[in-house]
Amino acid sequence: YEAGPQQALATATRMLKETGAHAVKLEGGERVADQIATISAAALDAEAAEQTIHDAIAVQEAGAFAVVMEMVPAELATQITGKLTIPTV
Fold this sequence. Notes:
Elements: H1 5-19, H2 33-61, H3 74-83
Helix pairs in contact: 1-2, 2-3
């Protein structure tokens, strides 16, 4: 993780996926602050994406006949479309 923020993110992501851990620990204070910020931002993005998926499913279950997505990244939109039985736009 000391190589820089993007390497820290790649390493943390790999560690979480391969080990099933729920957190990573970085040491170093100010010298790793950028790495921590990058990892934290990615985690928030992942949480927001997961919540968006849950929201779409809840809307479908509430009886919506379609879901219109705006400002949703293509990869996330594809995931949402795959989880719903109603049309998505």
